[in-house]
Amino acid sequence: MDYGKEALKKHKQWRGKLDVQAKMPIQNHDDLSIAYTPGVAAPCLEIRKDPESVYTYTGKGNTVAVISDGSAVLGLGNIGPEAGIPVMEGKCVLFKALADIDAIPLCLNTQDVDELVQIISALQPSFGGINLEDIAAPRCFDVEAKLKEKMNIPVFHDDQHGTAIVVSSALINALRLLKKEDPTIVINGAGSAGIAIASLLLELQLGDVILVDREGILNVEMDLTSGQRRLIDRVNRYKKTGTLADALTEADVFIGVSAGHIVTKEMIRSMKKDPIVFAMANPIPEIERADALEAGAKIVGTGRSDYPNQINNVLAFPGIFKGALQARAKEINEAMKIAAVYAIADLIKPEELHEEYVIVSALDRRVVPAVSKAVFKAAQESGVAPQEGR
């Protein structure tokens, strides 16, 4: 199937992938008086007396805003807010289909950090959580950090943390299967996703992390972004220098969040025995799966649904938000992310692990309940949610 051609046909037919469904019918004057005036004044006054009761009398507690500035949409780059709407609508469809969360796409006509923060933070009364999407680095780091300071609802940049969580789950299982300990992990692409992956792998203490971008292996002498600088003293334990090829020599793991066809068979052959290769550039991976296997890779994952071991954010964000919303958490913290990592990884039993099954399918219906339960518990135990939840 030509997915692009079919998507154009369907999007034209649908005129967008979302509509609004009312929970109650309006069939007579009583219905009208309950849904609107005069009856609606009663919940309004209750919320005025107790602002927390907004979670009881409105849909806020199960509603998420999916927000982008259009600056880093999929692999298409800075295509603008209007062109980003189909992606944000798609994300909202996944929220509803997989976790029964109502989500609203909002594409904003500014790429200024302060303006983004001002606009998004002003939305807090209407939403139970904020999913930031497709905002370019380094702006995304600053926007998320400032919003988390200003808002008391969960703010989650999925391109960063959703990617990091699913990569970590897959890597934990790959390391379990191959019995690799303290591996050298090379991450190519030191933007939003790469920085978040590195941060979480370090938090999980999975191994030595080496960050690489277009200029080569990152070091303190380079002109680093704020996100890169926060990590630079914690990565590259043995102070490797040089290019991506130099980084991969004797490495155990390659994680690519960069560009297609930049890794060669020779680079894979230079890695340690039975290397793990997660080549996640879309739609063209850093190295083709067949080439990586031919060069000696033991486990290969990509971002593509037509290959085994698809590393897909869909495994993370629906369950994370469902757990956070149900717990009425004020934020999504490291404990909640780590809980999600192990909830996803542990869905595959040790005896089920094999080279083509180190991460569950994005459509596995066990994922959202397992992740939401783990996140809910972690939110309460880490003190960012009331003990009784919602």
Strand order in the sheet with the most strands: 7-6-5-8-9-10
Euclidean distance between termini CA atoms: 44 Å
Q: Average pLDDT value? A: 95
Beta strand count: 10
Q: Biggest β-sheet: count, sense, barrel?
A: 6 strands, mixed
Helix share of residues?
Answer: 40-55%
Oligomerization state of this entry? single chain
Strand content bin: 5-15%
The ordered string of helix (H) and strand (E) elements is: HHHHEHEHEHEHEHEEHHEHEHEHHH
Number of helices: 16
Provide structural commentary.
The relative contact order is 0.10. The protein is 42% helix and 11% strand. The strands form 2 sheets. A 6-stranded mixed β-sheet has the order 7-6-5-8-9-10. It has a 4-stranded parallel β-sheet with strand order 2-1-3-4, with helices on both faces. With 390 residues, the protein is α/β, with parallel strands linked by helices.
Could you give a short description of this structure?
The chain has helices spanning 3-14, 29-35, 41-49, 54-57, 81-99, 113-121, 139-150, 158-178, 192-203, 226-231, 244-248, 265-269, 289-294, 317-327, 334-345, 367-381; strands at 63-68, 102-107, 129-132, 155-157, 184-188, 208-213, 216-217, 253-256, 276-279, 299-302. Helix content is 42%, strand content 11%.
In terms of topology, how is this protein built?
Layout: H1 3-14, H2 29-35, H3 41-49, H4 54-57, E1 63-68, H5 81-99, E2 102-107, H6 113-121, E3 129-132, H7 139-150, E4 155-157, H8 158-178, E5 184-188, H9 192-203, E6 208-213, E7 216-217, H10 226-231, H11 244-248, E8 253-256, H12 265-269, E9 276-279, H13 289-294, E10 299-302, H14 317-327, H15 334-345, H16 367-381
Parallel strand pairs: 1-2, 1-3, 3-4, 5-6, 5-8, 8-9, 9-10
Antiparallel strand pairs: 6-7
Helix pairs in contact: 5-14, 6-7, 8-9, 8-15, 14-16, 15-16
